[in-house]
Specification:
Distance between the termini: 48 Å
Structural class: alpha/beta
CATH architecture: 3-Layer(aba) Sandwich
CATH topology: Rossmann fold
CATH class: Alpha Beta
Number of strands: 8
Number of domains: 1
Length: about 300
Amino acid sequence: MSANNENNMSDKVAVVTGSNKGLGYIIVRDLCRRGVGVVYLTARDERRGLDAVEALKKEGLNPVFHQLDVTDKESVKRFAQHLKEKHGGIDILINNAAVITNDFNKTTFEDSVNVLNANYFSILTIQEYIFPVLKDNARVLNISSDAGHISNLENPYWIKRLTSEDLKLEDINDFVNWFLDSVKNGTLKEDDFVETGILAYRISKVALSALTRVQQKQVGRGISINSLHPGFIKTNMTKNSGFLELDDAGIAPVYFVLDADQSLKGKYLWFDKTEKEWTDHKLKIHSRMDIFMEHLKMNNKDYV
């Protein structure tokens, strides 16, 4: 890292969604530690967000809180307006806010709608209102998952359509709505997926990874947009199971928004700072429930 680049950190404005706890909190902490001038810690719940900011201030850091519910269009609009009026634009956007299925092994319509709204459709709202305040050469990182790789699917039609070079937003929306309709109508086929555990979460992250490719084609102005599998992190979402300690989980996200070459665009990245080919179904790097359950049992002694 050059001294000049480090000096420029103080001029940058960064936003991390869903950052009052877990991975988002660690990313905010690490961006502040790197000297990024303004780092927004956002949360749906104002009290929890302010408490998180206070905790970081005790470490000598100074993030800024702003309420943000990514599933509420008016909340996103208000935040975008604030960013425009206060800063003129932002340099870094990390779309981290996400939820997982309530029951890892059961797929219900209500739960699926909630997961898709939080993990996929919210990104379209952010694209509509916050992308216009991205500065030229800004960096966007969509937090995806190994559950977001195309190898999570086995349906030939959707694999072909989603990996097409001519992929469009309409294709992704059709995929998501196909899944929701299948759940609602009871026509879901297990053979269409490599596994059915956390299925709505898989669909949401496959859609997000695909959307990243479309966004990069459309955005222009030197802006880079990538998706990242942050690793199997010990957080509340994973019931404190995983191989990556939360304290280390910010290393890759911060690297990709601050240090990676700006030419890295529209890629599917991993926590070890490598790039994986998202369109290669043969890679078989899908999310595996057997590994999750093994870690769950190791880390939760009372788990049955």
